[in-house]
Structure to design on (887 residues):
C-alpha cells in the first residue's frame, strides 16, 4: 500500500509538474499568465490524434509534429494577440483566456467528445517495482518530466540568454542593455511555453482518454502548482507539484477519486489566501507592502 | 438667391459653449441629450407589454439578458478598482445558493430570500475574497476563476446543499411580467447608483486605486478595507441576480457556478466598453440575444463569444458604447448658410 | 531624546536577500528641522524612506515618531500619524484630472479630520493646493488628465498631494530631479514657507547646491551605511564623503 502510494504519488507529481511547466516558463520569462495553456495542451493532443489517425503518420512523428505546430502557434499568439495589448494585464489575461476557451469549445463543437479519442503509448509493457506494477509509459513520463525540469532550470539559471530573459521579465531596461528585444523574447517565451504544453500532452494523454474538460483542468492544475511554488521559481514548481501530487493521491486513496480536484483547487485558494508569494517565491512586488 | 447648405455637427451648440460639461441652452440641445436616454428607457419599460406578440421564449431571453447585465455591471465596478474577475459566477452562485438554502430549509419566499441573499451573499463573497485583496495583478483573476469551481466540486463530493441534485421545487414569482419589471427595476437602480458612486469622491478613491495603489496608500487610505467595500458593492447586484434566478428556475444547483456566468458578463463589458456601466448593459443586450440565436449551434456559440472577446479586446478596446457615443456626437445635419451665419 | 525630537531612527537595517540596502542607520530629527539625505545611487536612500513610512518592514532596528514606536506599522497608519511622502518615480493617477488627483488626499481620513473640507469644497481646496505648488489657476492644466502632464508638473503634483495631508513630517524623494532650474527656484520659497509653518522636512536629493539652501542638516549614506552627519559644510569636509560621492559636482557646486 505504502509502496503503491509512493510510486503513484511520484507519477502523479511528475504529471502535474509536466503539465504546469509551460505555463510556469512563460510566466517566468515574460510575465504573461498564459490562460490559453489548457487550450494549447488539448490542441496538441487532438492534433497528434489527427496526424496519427487521419494522416496515418507514425505515432512518434505525429506527436513531434503536433508539438512543433503548437509551439509555432504560441509564437503567433504573442505576435498577433498579445503584442497589441502588451502591458495591460487585464487585456493579456482576457485575450489568452479567450484563445483557450475558443480552442476547447471548437473541438467540443466539432464532436471531439466521444470515447474514441486516445493517443497510443510510445512504449508497451510494464515492470514491477517493489511489488507495484508500473508501465513503461509512466516511467517515460517521469524521465521526460525530470529531464525537462532540469533542462529548464539550467536554461534559465546558467545560460546567457536564459538569464537575460529572466532579467527582462523583472526589468525591461536591463534586458534591453544586454541586447534582447522584448518582442522577440516574448514570442520565444510563448513558443517555448506552448511547446512544453504540447510535450506534456503527447506523453500524458496516452494514459487515458482525451476529453475537452481536461483542458480547463490543465489550466487550473498549472495555476495551482505554480501558485503553490511561487510564480516564478523553478524549484517552487517542482516542490509545488510534489506537494499537490502526493496530496491528491493520498486523498484519492482514502476519500475517493472525486476528491482529487478539490485538492488542487483548494491549494490555489489556500495558498493565495495565506502565503501568496508561494512557498518559494520572492516576488519583488510583494516586498513593498501596499 | 439660393442660400446653399453646409454641414454642422448636431452637438455644435453644446460644444461651442462648453467643452466637457453640458450647458443646455435650447430645447434642441435638451432633446439631443435626453432623447437617446429616454428612448432606451421607454423601450425597456414597454417591452413586457408585448408579452403575447413576443411569446415566453423572448421574454426569457430578455430576463437572462438583464441578469447577465447585472453581472456585467458588477464586473465593471470591480474593474474600476483594478480587480479583474474571471469568475462572476462566484457571486452569482453565492446569491443563488443562499436564496435556495433559505427557501429550501425554512420555506422562505422570494420576498425574504431576495434581500437576505443579496446582502448575505455579498458579505460571504467579500469575506471569501478578503485575504487576497492585498495582492496586485492577476491574483484576483486566478482566485475568482478557481473559487467557483472549487465550491461546485466541494458541493459535489460532500453532497451538501443538495449535492449534484441541487435543491428544487422552490417558490416562484407570480408571473413573468412581474419578473421582468423586478429585474429591470434592479438594473435601473444599479446603473444609476453605480454612475452616482463613481462621481463622488468616495468612488474616485476606487479609480485611484486602479491607477496607482501605492499613492492611495501614501494618502493614508487602508486600501484593503476600501477594496473590500468595493467588492461588497460590486457583489450586490450579482448576488441578487443569482438569488433571482434561483426562484425563476425554482431550482438551484451546480450550474449556478458554471463558466457561462463568468464568461458572458466579461465578454459583455468588453464588447460594450469598460468603465461606463452603460457599456456593460449595452454589451449584454448585444451578446445574450446573439448567443440565443446561436443556441442551436451548441458550443460553437462559446467559440463565437470567445472570438468576440478577442476581437474587441484587441480591435476596439473602447467598446461599442464609447464608439457609438462618439459617432452620435459627430452626427452632422445640413444647415442653410444664412441661418448658420445668423447664429 | 527630548520632547523636541520628532523622529528617531535606531540602528535601522533592511536586507533584500543578500543586499543590505540599509545597514544600521541611526539619527535624530528635531521638530521643525530640515534634513537632507544624500548618497550615490543605490545607497539606500529610497529604502530608508520606505522604512520610515512603513512601505517596507525593517529587518531590524526601530523607528520612533513623536515618542511612539512605529516600526513596521502599515503605511496608511504612518500617514495618519502625520508622515507624508512623495515618490522618487512620480506616478500620478493617470486617468483622473489633475485637481481630482489632489482630491484623493484631501478626502483622506487624516485630511478630513484636519482640514474639515466638505464635499464640493474639496475641489476648491485641491485647486488652492495646486496653486501653492505653482499650477496656474486659470489655465486648463488642473483639469486635464494627469497622464498629460509634463514631468516637472508631476513632481509638483506629488508635492501638492503631500501638503494636502497637513503632515508634521514631510519626506520628499528626489523632488528636484527632472525639474528645470527655474522650476526649482519657484519651489524654494514654498519649501521655506513649509518650514516656517513648523513642519519637519526630509529631502533626498542629488542637486546639492539647491538642497543646501533648504536644509540645515545632512546625512550621507553609502552602501546603506551612514558615513557622515552634520551641517552641509561639515559633511562636505569629510573626505570619505567626497570620495564616495560624485566628486566633480561637489567641487563645482558647494
Ligand atoms: N523592493 C526591493 N527588492 C529588492 N531589492 C531592493 C528593493 N528596493 C531596493 N532594493 C535594493 O536596495 C538597494 C538600495 O536601493 P534604493 O534604496 O532605491 O537606493 P537609492 O534610493 O539610494 O538610489 C539597491 O541595491 C536596490 O537594488
Ligand atoms: Mg532612490
Amino acid at each position: 500500500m505504502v509502496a503503491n502510494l509512493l510510486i503513484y504519488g511520484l507519477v502523479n507529481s511528475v504529471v502535474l509538474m509536466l503539465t504546469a511547466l509551460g505555463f510556469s516558463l512563460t510566466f517566468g520569462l515574460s510575465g504573461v499568465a498564459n490562460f490559453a495553456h489548457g487550450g494549447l495542451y488539448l490542441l496538441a493532443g487532438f492534433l497528434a490524434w489527427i496526424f496519427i489517425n487521419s494522416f496515418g503518420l507514425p505515432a512518434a512523428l505525429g506527436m513531434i509534429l503536433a508539438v512543433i505546430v503548437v509551439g509555432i502557434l504560441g509564437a503567433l499568439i504573442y505576435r498577433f494577440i498579445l503584442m497589441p495589448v502588451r502591458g495591460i494585464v487585464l487585456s493579456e489575461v482576457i485575450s489568452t483566456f479567450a484563445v483557450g476557451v475558443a480552442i476547447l469549445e471548437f473541438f467540443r463543437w466539432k464532436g471531439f467528445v466521444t470515447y474514441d479519442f486516445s493517443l497510443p503509448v510510445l512504449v508497451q509493457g510494464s515492470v514491477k517495482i517493489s511489488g507495484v506494477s508500473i508501465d513503461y509509459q509512466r516511467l517515460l513520463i517521469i524521465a521526460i518530466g525530470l529531464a525537462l525540469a532540469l533542462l529548464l532550470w539550467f536554461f534559465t539559471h546558467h545560460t546567457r540568454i536564459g538569464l537575460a530573459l529572466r532579467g527582462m521579465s523583472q526589468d525591461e531596461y536591463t534586458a534591453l542593455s544586454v541586447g534582447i528585444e522584448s518582442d522577440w523574447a516574448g514570442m520565444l517565451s510563448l513558443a517555448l511555453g506552448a511547446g512544453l504544453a504540447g510535450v506534456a500532452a503527447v506523453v500524458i494523454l496516452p494514459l487515458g482518454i482525451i476529453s475537452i474538460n481536461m483542458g480547463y483542468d490543465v489550466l487550473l492544475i498549472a495555476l495551482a502548482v505554480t501558485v503553490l511554488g511561487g510564480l516564478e521559481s523553478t524549484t517552487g514548481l517542482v516542490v509545488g507539484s510534489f506537494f499537490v501530487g502526493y496530496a491528491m493521491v493520498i486523498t484519492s486513496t482514502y476519500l475517493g477519486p472525486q476528491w482529487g480536484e478539490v485538492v488542487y483547487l483548494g491549494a490555489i485558494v489556500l495558498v493565495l489566501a495565506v502565503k501568496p508569494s508561494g512557498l518559494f517565491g520572492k516576488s519583488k512586488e510583494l516586498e513593498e507592502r501596499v | 438667391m439660393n442660400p446653399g447648405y453646409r454641414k454642422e455637427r448636431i452637438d455644435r451648440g453644446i460644444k461651442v459653449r462648453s467643452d466637457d460639461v453640458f450647458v443646455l441652452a435650447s430645447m434642441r440641445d435638451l432633446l439631443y441629450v435626453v432623447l437617446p436616454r429616454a428612448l432606451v428607457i421607454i423601450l425597456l419599460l414597454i417591452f413586457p407589454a408585448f408579452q403575447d406578440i413576443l411569446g415566453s421564449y423572448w421574454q426569457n431571453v430578455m430576463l437572462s439578458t438583464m441578469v447577465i447585465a447585472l453581472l456585467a455591471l458588477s464586473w465593471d465596478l470591480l474593474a474600476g478598482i483594478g480587480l479583474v474577475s474571471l469568475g462572476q459566477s462566484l457571486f452569482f452562485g453565492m446569491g443563488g445558493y443562499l436564496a435556495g438554502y433559505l427557501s429550501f430549509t425554512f420555506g422562505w419566499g422570494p420576498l425574504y430570500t431576495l434581500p437576505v441573499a443579496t446582502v448575505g451573499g455579498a458579505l460571504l463573497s467579500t469575506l471569501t475574497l478578503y485575504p487576497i485583496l492585498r495582492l496586485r495583478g492577476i491574483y484576483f483573476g486566478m482566485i475568482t476563476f478557481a473559487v467557483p469551481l472549487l465550491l461546485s466540486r466541494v458541493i459535489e463530493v460532500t453532497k451538501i446543499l443538495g449535492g449534484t441534485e441541487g435543491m428544487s421545487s422552490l417558490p416562484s414569482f407570480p408571473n413573468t411580467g412581474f419578473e421582468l419589471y423586478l429585474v429591470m427595476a434592479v438594473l435601473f437602480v444599479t446603473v444609476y447608483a453605480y454612475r452616482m458612486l463613481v462621481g463622488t469622491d468616495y468612488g474616485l478613491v476606487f479609480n485611484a486605486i486602479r491607477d496607482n495603489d501605492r499613492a492611495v496608500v501614501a494618502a493614508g487610505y487602508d486600501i484593503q478595507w476600501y477594496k473590500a467595500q468595493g467588492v461588497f458593492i460590486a457583489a450586490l447586484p450579482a448576488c441578487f441576480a443569482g438569488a433571482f434566478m434561483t426562484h425563476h428556475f425554482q431550482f438551484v444547483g451546480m450550474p449556478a457556478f458554471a463558466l457561462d456566468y463568468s464568461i458572458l458578463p466579461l465578454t459583455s463589458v468588453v464588447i460594450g466598453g469598460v468603465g461606463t456601466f452603460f457599456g456593460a448593459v449595452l454589451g449584454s443586450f448585444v451578446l445574450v440575444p446573439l448567443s440565443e440565436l446561436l443556441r442551436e449551434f451548441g458550443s460553437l456559440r462559446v467559440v463565437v463569444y470567445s472570438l468576440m472577446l478577442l476581437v474587441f479586446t484587441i480591435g476596439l478596446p473602447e467598446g461599442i458604447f464609447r464608439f457609438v457615443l462618439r459617432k452620435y456626437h459627430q452626427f452632422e445635419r445640413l444647415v442653410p448658410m444664412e441661418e448658420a451665419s445668423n447664429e | 531624546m527630548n520632547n523636541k525630537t520628532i523622529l528617531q531612527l535606531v540602528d535601522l537595517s533592511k536586507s533584500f536577500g543578500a543586499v543590505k540596502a540599509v545597514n544600521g542607520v541611526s539619527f535624530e530629527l528635531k521638530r521643525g528641522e530640515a534634513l537632507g539625505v544624500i548618497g550615490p545611487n543605490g545607497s539606500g536612500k529610497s529604502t530608508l524612506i520606505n522604512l520610515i513610512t512603513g512601505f517596507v518592514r525593517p529587518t531590524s532596528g526601530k523607528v520612533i515618531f513623536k515618542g511612539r514606536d512605529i516600526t513596521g506599522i502599515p503605511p496608511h497608519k504612518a500617514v495618519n500619524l502625520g508622515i507624508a511622502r512623495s515618490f522618487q518615480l512620480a506616478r500620478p493617477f493617470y486617468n483622473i484630472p489633475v485637481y481630482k488627483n489632489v482630491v484623493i488626499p484631501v478626502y483622506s481620513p487624516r485630511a478630513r479630520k484636519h482640514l474639515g473640507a466638505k464635499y464640493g469644497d474639496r475641489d476648491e481646496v485641491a485647486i488652492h493646493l495646486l496653486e501653492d505648488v505653482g499650477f496656474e489657476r486659470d489655465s486648463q492644466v488642473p483639469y486635464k488628465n494627469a497622464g498629460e502632464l509634463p514631468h516637472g508638473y508631476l513632481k509638483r503634483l506629488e508635492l501638492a498631494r503631500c501638503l494636502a495631508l497637513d503632515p508634521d513630517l514631510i519626506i520628499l524623494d528626489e523632488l528636484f530631479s527632472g525639474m528645470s532650474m527655474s522650476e526649482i527656484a519657484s519651489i524654494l520659497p514654498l519649501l521655506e514657507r513649509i518650514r516656517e509653518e513648523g513642519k519637519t522636512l526630509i529631502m533626498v536629493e542629488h542637486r546639492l547646491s539647491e538642497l543646501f539652501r533648504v536644509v540645515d542638516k545632512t546625512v550621507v549614506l553609502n552602501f546603506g551605511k551612514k558615513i557622515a552627519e552634520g551641517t552641509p559644510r561639515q559633511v562636505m569636509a569629510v573626505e570619505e564623503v567626497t570620495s564616495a560621492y560624485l566628486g566633480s559636482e561637489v567641487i563645482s557646486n558647494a
About this structure: Residues 248-254 of chain C have pLDDT under 50 and may be disordered. Residues 181-196 of chain C form the longest helix (16 residues). Residues 106 and 164 of chain C are 5 Å apart (CA to CA). Residues 1-82+169-177+187-254 of chain C form a domain with the Rossmann fold fold (CATH 3.40.50.300).
